[in-house]
Amino acid sequence: MQIISIVSPKGGTGKTALATALAVALAGRECRTCLYDLDPQGSAARWYFNHRLPRNARSMNGSGTWPDRPLDPLVMNRIADPARAAASILKDVEASEEAGRPLEWAVCDTAGGAFGTLGELAVLSDLLVVPLLPSVPDLATIPKLHAFTASLETSPEVAAVLTRVPPRSGQRTEFARQTLADAGLRCLAASIGQSVLWQDAYEAGRSPQEMPFWRSRRAAGEIARLLDEIITMTSSTERKSHGRHVSTETAGGAQAVAR
Ligand SMILES: Nc1ncnc2c1ncn2[C@@H]1O[C@H](COP(=O)(O)OP(=O)(O)O)[C@@H](O)[C@H]1O
Ligand SMILES: [Mg+2]
Questions:
Q1: How do residues 10-52 score in pLDDT, each as one tens digit?
Q2: In the chain, what are the domains?
Q3: Is 194 close to ligand 1, i.e. is its CB under 6 Å away?
Q4: pTM, whole model, 2 decimals?
Q5: Which is nearest to 227 in space by CA: 16, 18, 37?
Q6: Could you tell me whether strands 74-78 and 33-37 are parallel, antiparallel, or unpaired per DSSP bridges?
Q7: Which ligand is nearest to the CA of 162?
């Protein structure tokens, strides 16, 4: 069981786009995946419930109900209180194991700058993925991210991903990569290009790689390379969701996650 959380100090960096694309990519590789929506705006949940929910399957809910007949290994759970996300995930893992269909991946989409409530989830996550545009306002948020991870009891693995990279912006991208390196923040080699395909895919309840081939080839390649890197990174770390218990009393405190 691996947990990745898509976080960022600001909104509009492509968190939801990335979360949905990675969840679909994992499901496409036959991994039982739950996409968690922790953002009060509910963009990932809207994407899922408007289009994807098979008529005869239920989504997971707060009580950890696993769909009776998942037609797609991707399910969704919307979590109203992000501070309880870690506890909910562990509960879902248990429920899925009892149902004989153990959850293999959790992909958590979070609200921009919601760090105050994400401590427990961040500590439980195998990887925090931080989408950033290669632009100065996004790069300027790196200290906030560092302050957040430094405040945690144990530092999670963190990787930035350049998203919405405009065409012909090689110099800008190089500058962003250098800025991230100087700040000591790992940046994945794969990046996501700017394309209206991402908007069209969201509105269709799809991921870019599910759009017609002639439009989606480039984005599908980017997502696949990104997922390969994420899988390599998380498979080399200790699986955190095993043997951990999350206190359900102290909502939000990073210290509440204990072995
Ligand atoms: N690679 C991309 N190319 C073009 N538009 C994108 C891309 N990724 C996201 N978008 C669009 O940018 C906006 C913000 O993306 P979103 O994923 O909702 O960001 P966040 O969840 O970080 O607020 C949305 O309209 C989305 O469709
Ligand atoms: Mg979002």
A1: 999 999 999 999 999 999 898 999 999 999 999 999 998 877 6
A2: 2-258 (3.40.50.300)
A3: yes
A4: 0.90
A5: 18
A6: parallel
A7: 1
